Amino acid sequence: MSTVDPTALPLPQHVDVVVVGAGLSGIGAGYRLQTECPDQSYLILESRDTMGGTWDLFRYPGVRSDSDMFTLGYQFKPWRDAKSIADGPTILQYIRDTADEFGIDEHIRYGTRVVSADFSTADSLWTLTLARGGVETTMTCGFLYSCAGYYDYDDTYRPDFPGIDDFAGQVVHPQYWPEDLDYAGKRVVVIGSGATAVTLVPSMTSDSEQSGRAEHVTMLQRSPTWISAVPSRDTKADWLRDHLPADVAHRIVRAKNIAFGTAVYQFCRRRPQQARKVLLGMTTKILGDEQMVADHFTPSYDPWDQRLCAVPSGDLFKSLKKGDAEIVTDTIESFVPDGIRLTSGRVLEADVVVTATGLKLLAFGGIKPQVDGETVPLSEQFVWQGAMMTGVPNFAVCIGYTNASWTLRADLSHRLVCKVLGWMDEKGYPAVAPSPDRPLTERPLLDLAAGYVQRSIDAFPRQGDSGPWRVRQNYVLDSLTTMRTDLARTLKPVTPARSEKVAS
């Protein structure tokens, strides 16, 4: 293990563009900046000591993608691994290989957290206050781009479970998975029904995990979630990669999967009753138990009101059929020394309880942008083209899709930022910010009914109801329109605040 100080590399006093976050998005942003804006200097600031973001943070058993890697991977670097639904370590290595291959890692400064960011309209510069190596320092940049996602890496959502201190076993949250956790031969209860829970249950009953095999795993859910079995390998992609050059095959597979994903989403949203019938029929066919499907796999909401959970090769269903795991739909009355007492009166005995109860949202990695020393109220702003924001000049954010691979929208945002930077140079504008040309009807930025979204979304900026102010969940339309948008229509030069005061 390296003992090199991650803060050893010096910080420049100024760069043209600062990217916040060295995860999947930040590395993609670095590639686009150095290929499409070669005259712009850039730096990637990462608060942790290593790259990878989500794929380095989460270490729980079986952690994997919930989108196919041909679309979650980068457009410019073909995914060559056999599995289309990949495990976390493989994705992390893919990110590291990309950064190394294109020299992006040389632009990263680790252990560097953005404490505050203040834009001066007089100087058209961001001043960033950074925490690094236990001390605070500052640097400036012309453009600030947040690729830190919208999850809180330092905190997580913890429901207030009655009696949890009375539990004699161990309570674990997936975001802080202990490296030395030994659950072999133990009884485990996983609380939750989202992507993390449906990943953990079959993984903890598998002999392939290094930590051994749990004696029994119970997935305890308050209400069912839409879950769909998907192939772990894409056989059509395998055939194409065997018969075509890698780059050509990658483009075809990527286009195929984008089209299929878009079609499934549109079908679910436009014909929810038919979609329910299809999904329930597939689950019933795998499990062979209509009552189990009715009790535990039939949600009250429509498909894609919340993100659809994918289980590769139906591994969750196979664990249930073998009896290695069970699913219980009930609510918690309280924890007891031996486990969890349910509202029904049943006690789920447990040695380990995993609280896969959701994440906590955090806007822009915790950055609260200021303009001329005044904090911008994020909840009063609107997002333009899913990237830039009213009220904050020379600032962009990367927000991925909720119904498709995150990277699809992320790459569009990277390219849009590069287009804006080039347009600013061409026009001689030192600073711009989007401004609507009509009143906007506000909508939540993330239009999902999921609990983790609803708990925090009011702290985020809004989206509008149409045009470039609508954060669409449709990559096909976005790919046709985003790079063709008329920048002059909504991006306006920023007038220095001190000039306005003098003029008044």
Automatic annotation (TrEMBL):
InterPro entries the UniProt entry points to: FAD-binding_MO, FAD/NAD-bd_sf, Flavin_mOase-like
The keyword Metal-binding is annotated on this UniProt entry: no
Pfam families: FMO-like, NAD_binding_8
GO molecular function ontology, one term from the record: NADP binding
Family annotation (SUPFAM superfamilies): FAD/NAD(P)-binding domain
Keyword line: FAD, Flavoprotein, Monooxygenase, NADP, Oxidoreductase
Domain of life: Bacteria
Region forming the signal peptide: none
Gene3D superfamilies for the chain: FAD/NAD(P)-binding domain
Cofactor(s) listed: FAD
Disulfide bond is among the record's keywords: no
Family: Belongs to the FAD-binding monooxygenase family.
The protein, known as: NAD(P)/FAD-dependent oxidoreductase
